Amino acid sequence: xxxxLRVAVVSDSTPERNGVGSYYADLVSQLETRxxxxxxxxxxxxxxxxxRYLAPPLPGDKTQRIWFxxxxxxxxxxxxxxxxxxxxxxxxxxxxxxxxxxRRRGIPLVxxxxxxxxxxxxxxxxxxxxxxxxxxxxxxxxxxxxxxxxVLAVSPEMMDQARRMGAENAALIGTSVPSEFLARPLAPLSxxxxxxLFAGRLAEEKNVDRVVELARARRQLQVSIAGDGPMxxxxxxxxxxxxxxxxxGWVPRERLIDVIDAHDALVLPxxxxxxxxxxxxxxxxxxxxxxxxxxxxxxxxxxxECLFYIGDDESLAQAVDRVLAxxxxxxxxxxxxxHEAAHDLNEWxxxxxxxxxQAQ
Length: 360
What we know:
alpha/beta; Rossmann fold; 6-stranded parallel beta sheet; 13 helices; 14 strands; 43% helix
């Protein structure tokens, strides 16, 4: 039954370019089947557009940009759909216009808190610009928190962080999975697993260098890296000199399911990871997932039996050895449990979003 609810999501993240962009592309797509209307308002990253040259690169990552909307056009589009609720997941120019529309029109605002921006500024911006960036992020988050009916976070740790930053009305939500990841029959795991995948932003906080070390330490494995980011040149150079390391470049979202299915395991050794959407997508496809305890998905108890962690005194290569050495039957059982847990979280998340939005 379709709920009488109209939701506008106003985000600074381009669709499917990063975790936040992917999150709302998936969420809006699935909400459209359950409520009257859901629409995503965000930048379109057109590489051949002259406007691209006016958009400054994101500090620390020249592959992503800070897009500035045409304010009156965006205002007109958002107000034109007559939303019952506005959702803002980012503190940039698009998000602040979403806030302005909500305040001016008296529309309930919901802030979604996905990214540990302050931790990332510690990694990338230790100079004067970093101090300015941190102050801006703190100011913009507090402004959004103060004007939001609810602040929704994707993990318990992120919810606690939002509360420490001043969000008095923080609550927990989950993460959605693209419908095809759940609907398509699972590809069987190889009886002799040898293919390992890293997919995501090629950046310092992802510990991409550890994935390269894995390939060099375990020549019998085929290691693939998919993504783009500030460490792209490092990865490409490493792949050129490491026969069992394949750099796939940026993989469009519609191809990601096939890439995941072609591998036995996914690794995510991140230093900072608010949730880890690609880990959830790999679980949905019944793959083995090996990750650090810094990933927010580790805080969800339903995945307790499906995730494998890199030990404190363990290299990534040693963790991969341990997991791939499990009996074939055990690996198959874990894959089935992972798929079921991802399906259950997806259903819970959609219901939780609708309940939270209707409550406004």
